[in-house]
Specification:
The structure holds three protein chains of three kinds.
Chain A (H helix, E strand, L loop, with lengths): L3 H21 L3 H26 L5 H31 L13
Helix pairs in contact in A: 1-2, 2-3
Chain B lengths: L2 H25 L3 H21 L3 H26 L12 H27 L10 H9 L3 H22 L4
Chain C lengths: L1 H7 L1 H19 L7 H21 L1 H4 L1 E3 L4 E3 L1 H20 L9 H20 L3 H19 L6 H32 L17 H21 L9 H7 L2 H7 L2 H14 L3 H4 L1 H23 L4 H22 L2 H28 L13 H4 L1 H15 L5 H15 L3 H26 L18 H28 L1
Antiparallel strand pairs in C: 1-2
Helix pairs in contact in C: 2-3, 2-6, 3-5, 5-6, 5-11, 5-12, 5-16, 5-21, 6-7, 6-12, 7-8, 8-9, 8-10, 10-15, 11-16, 12-15, 12-16, 14-15, 14-20, 15-16, 15-19, 15-20, 16-18, 16-19, 16-21, 18-20, 18-21, 19-20, 19-21
The chains are: A mainly alpha, B mainly alpha, C mainly alpha.
């Protein structure tokens, strides 16, 4: 049996990796993909924590389920926006967006 | 090979696939390749869920991500631009800075998680399976369950509105 | 029990039914599209009335519902009434602006977003908070870009979406760590227990959890280091929607933060408290100083929003019942002042940048509009006898009462700085008595009647809260 801590560490590593990816890459589609990875890493963390705590109320698993629901909603909305943006601008690079500029 | 060794082998395999696919997805210059790498990483996540005895979630992950999400991503990649967008930013100084900050953050975080996990009593079995999940969703967590339907509806209406060609 | 639940949540049920009905009617009979706004307005007014009735029967209806997932109490009622009134104003301001083909989506998504805020305020566990924030945010991503022909609005929508989603996921990771370190997600009895009851192992993870949670929530309320999306989004999005997202979501999340932190927080967690104090001070200082340098009024209001977030955080850091009263009062003041200021900008022109120069001699050309703008600006600045003065006074007093006099001092000094940029607009409106030619293309088109009604209502609300604030002020002396 693999102990939950192994899953927790993997979750943290993938979460931070995808976070760095989100903040440094230049393509909108890849930014969305990084968001999906982050959400999956969070769901894994919730499952592993539910397992580690031995929580009979199923909170960890329920939260992981809702992570999936939200990320499905999010990707639909995000891709629709990317499509719309592309129709207007003809490019899907985040450079034109200046995400960090205030 | 005992059950213990098998599960460690499967975990290591999927962990390597996830990390490898994530990095390849970010570095790839071709978005279709990126989408395939993403699908690989998300499929391995399904395997990890199964290892944690969350069979239902593993199936959901397979259907929703590997099925629906990846297909939609590939569609949008095809619809928008197959040309390679300038990717010179990726190996610049700021990326190394981000990586350094990430590592500096990861080490204490993982350390804290290890301390926490060591302090918890190890549960021998999973707290519950699909039946318990269903019961929790429809009793304790019925309000969030209903609210999630409104969220999906909002995303649906918003996405259709945005993607529709102007009449 | 079941009947009570139906009655207690009747305002939300009415709004849900209205939304579902609008969607079906809009799809089946396109001729009903022009009446969507009437339906939304009617549904909001009915919901407001029902919320008032529920509050009148507090003794039998208040309590915990849905397996302790949601709580109906005076704070929830406050949220319902404030969000409902702000919703009415936004619907009035959006009356004529959106083409008929957008009506179903615009008003439907708007109502859903309002429902999300009620979920945030009434929720009693982290799952409800997360789902509430998503229900609030997902419709606004589409609403910002509701004018699909405007490139700026689409870019603003995309930026808002990417950073908003990113903040949500970071917050979600914080929630996971909170769940791990506390073993529960419910905050019926305050999420943060007395730290002496927690082992060192749990406290270690709790620090990271708090950091991620505040990072995510800070994005949503535009607190200082996480505010950088707001000026572009405020300047690019459609103005009615910006007026909405700059006020109501912030109010809802502030109320939720107050609920989450609970009484043990301000005494038991010094590191986390200093982290919040740093955010509050930086928000006040940075927001006000940068706002002073802005020429575009929408961007100026965005930075003024950052500063106001800092003021709201003062009450959250201080904690306690008197701070809560001060926070609630300040939130009302901020909501109507900010909504009104954005409505004036909307009235001056939707499609172009409104700069401070546009206000030159406004009082001579449009005396009523200038008077309204002056009322909102001086309320935001906190000049007596308008509502903002009492709001800020109550906030600073609660900070002093809880042993944070320096925080109150920073608030006071930055308030004086903020008068500078509010006064700049006011002096442009009133000070310029020399007859000057109107710059080319800067004439204001006729302001539609519903927007006029919204402006009158916002002015009334600002003045009435000012009058209501006097007892608060006198009681505090």
């Amino acid at each position: 049996m693999v102990p939950p801590i192994a899953f927790l560490i993997l979750g943290a590593v993938v979460f931070l990796l995808a976070m760095i990816g989100f903040l440094t890459r230049r393509s909108l589609v890849q930014a969305l993909m990084c968001l999906e990875l982050m959400t999956s890493a969070v769901a894994l963390t919730f499952l592993a924590l539910g397992r580690a705590l031995g929580d009979r109320s199923m909170t960890g698993m329920v939260f992981a389920t809702f992570c999936m629901v939200i990320s499905a909603a999010e990707i639909g909305m995000g891709l629709a926006l990317v499509l719309l943006y592309f129709r207007k601008h003809g490019s899907t690079s985040t450079d034109d967006l200046d995400l960090m500029k205030g | 090979m005992g059950a213990e060794a098998t599960s460690w082998f499967l975990f290591t395999l999927m962990a390597v696939v996830i990390v490898g696919c994530s990095v390849a997805m970010m570095l790839s210059r071709n978005f279709v390749h990126s989408a395939v790498f993403l699908a690989g990483a998300l499929l391995s996540f399904a395997g990890l869920y199964a290892l944690l005895d969350a069979t239902f979630l593993a199936l959901l992950q397979l259907f929703i991500y590997a099925g629906a999400v990846t297909v939609v991503v590939v569609f949008v990649v095809m619809l928008t631009s197959t040309s390679v967008v300038a990717f010179d930013s990726l190996l610049q100084r700021q990326t190394w800075l981000a990586l350094a900050v990430g590592v500096a953050f990861a080490i204490p975080l993982i350390d804290a998680l290890r301390t926490l996990a060591a302090a918890l009593p190890l549960a021998a079995t999973a707290p519950g399976g699909t039946e318990e999940l269903a019961r929790a969703l429809l009793t304790t967590y019925v309000a969030p369950f209903e609210i999630s339907s409104a969220i999906l509806l909002a995303a649906l209406v918003g996405a259709i509105y945005l993607a529709r060609e102007a009449s | 029990m079941y009947l009570n639940a139906w009655l207690a949540w009747s305002p939300e049920i009415v709004l849900t039914l209205a939304w579902a009905g609008m969607l079906v009617c809009g799809a089946l009979w396109p001729r009903t599209h022009p009446y969507m706004r009437h339906a939304t307005l009617a549904a909001l007014l009915i919901a407001l009335g029902l919320a008032g009735l529920v509050a009148a029967n507090a003794h039998s209806l208040y309590g915990l519902y849905f397996s302790e997932a949601a709580k109906l109490d005076s704070v929830t009622t406050f949220g319902r009434l404030l969000f409902g009134s702000a919703g009415v104003l936004v619907v009035l301001a959006s009356w004529d602006v959106h083409g008929e083909e957008n009506a179903v989506e615009f008003f439907g998504l708007f109502v859903l977003s309002l429902l999300g805020e009620v979920v945030i305020v009434s929720g009693q566990n982290l799952l409800m908070l997360f789902l509430g924030i998503e229900l609030l945010a997902l419709p606004t991503y589409a609403l910002i870009a509701i004018h699909k022909t405007r490139a700026r609005a689409i870019a603003a929508g995309l930026k808002y979406f990417l950073l908003g989603m990113f903040a949500s996921v970071v917050m979600l990771y914080g929630m996971a760590l909170l769940y791990g370190s506390l073993g529960t997600i419910s905050y019926v009895h305050a999420l943060f227990p007395d730290p002496s009851h927690l082992s060192a192992a749990r406290l270690g993870v709790l620090q990271f959890a708090f950091f991620f949670l505040i990072l995510g929530l800070g994005f949503k309320v535009t607190a200082f280091p996480f505010h950088f999306w707001s000026p572009d989004v405020y300047a690019g999005g459609s103005t009615q929607v910006v007026a909405y997202i700059s006020t109501v979501p912030k109010v809802a999340i502030m109320l939720a933060i107050f609920r989450i932190l609970g009484p043990a927080f301000s005494t038991g967690y010094p590191i986390a408290k200093w982290f919040l104090i740093a955010i509050a001070v930086l928000s006040m200082v940075y927001g006000n100083i940068v706002a002073l340098m802005q020429d575009d009024v929408r961007r100026m209001l965005a930075y003024s929003g950052v500063a106001n977030t800092g003021y709201m955080l003062i009450a959250i850091i201080a904690g306690g019942a008197d701070s809560q009263a001060a926070l609630l009062f300040f939130l009302v003041v901020y909501t109507f002042g900010n909504l009104g200021a954005f409505f004036v900008v909307l009235g001056m022109g939707e499609d172009r940048h409104i700069t401070i120069g546009d206000f030159d001699g406004l009082a001579r050309r449009y005396p009523v509009l200038a008077l309204a703008m002056g009322c909102f600006l001086f309320s935001l600045a906190g000049t007596p006898p308008l509502a903002g003065f009492f709001g800020k006074f109550a906030l600073f007093k609660s900070a002093v009462a809880h042993g944070l006099p320096l925080l109150a001092l920073v608030g006071l000094v930055t308030t004086v700085i903020s008068v500078g940029y509010y006064l700049k607009i006011a002096s442009n409106m009133y000070g310029d008595l020399v007859q000057r030619d109107l710059p080319e293309g800067r004439a204001i088109e006729r302001i539609p009647v519903p927007l006029r009604i919204a402006l009158v209502l916002a002015v009334t609300a600002t003045l009435v809260t000012g009058v209501l604030g006097i007892p608060l002020f006198l009681g505090a002396l």
